Amino acid sequence: MSERNMEEKAEQATNSKNISLPMSRVRLIMKSSPDVSCINQDALFLTTKATELFVQYLALSSYKNGSGRETNTLSYSDLANAAEETETFQFLTDILPKKILARDYLKSLEEMEKDDDNL
Predict the structure, then answer these.
(1) Confidence of residue 65 (pLDDT cuts 50, 70, 90)
(2) Which of 47, 14, 9 is nearest to 31 (CA)?
(3) How confident is the model at residue 70 (pLDDT cuts 50, 70, 90)?
(4) In sequence order, what are the residues at sequence separation of 6 or more whose Cβ sits closer than 8 angstroms to the Cβ of residue 39?
(5) Quick one: which H or E segment has residue 51?
(6) How far is it, in rounded angstroms, from Cα 116 to Cα 64?
(7) d(CA 54, CA 103)
(8) 76: which residues sit within 8 A by CB, 6+ positions away?
(9) pTM of the entire structure?
(10) N or C: which end of the chain has fewer CB within 10 A?
(11) Please, which residues have CB within 8 angstroms of residue 77's CB and are 6 or more apart in sequence?
């Protein structure tokens, strides 16, 4: 599938009144907040549609800048890179951290401990 076809499908989905995400799940997530007592059906629809469009935008941005363009795939590392490198997605860096090997993490911990001991 070419990039142009993907963008056309994204635009069609944006203009569509259909949604792909289950509204019952979105309602459940919204009700998990203690500040929410009741949810208007219009508010639920708009929140579901906005969430769907956001996920679509994140996926397209990650795909365009990712390493899987040749193989037509989207990987976790593409999403993590988009979260780290794109200002719009900076708030996702805690949710989508870059993967790091355990030995590299332990090495960085040792270096931080050495730095703390030197102070």
Answers:
(1) confident
(2) 47
(3) confident
(4) 27, 30, 31
(5) helix 41-65
(6) 41
(7) 35
(8) 96, 99
(9) 0.69
(10) C
(11) 66, 67, 98, 99
Per residue in 2-40, pLDDT (tens digit) is 666 666 666 666 566 788 899 999 999 999 999 988 999
Can you read off the two tokens belonging to residue 65? Answer: 């800048």
- The whole-angstrom separation of Cα 82 and Cα 61 is 7
Dist CA 119 CA 108 (whole Å): 17
pLDDT score recorded for residue 18: 84
Q: Which of 2, 53, 47, 6 is nearest to 23 (CA)?
A: 47
C-alpha 28/C-alpha 32 separation (Å) is 6
The separation between the first and the last C-alpha atoms of the chain, rounded to the nearest angstrom, is 56
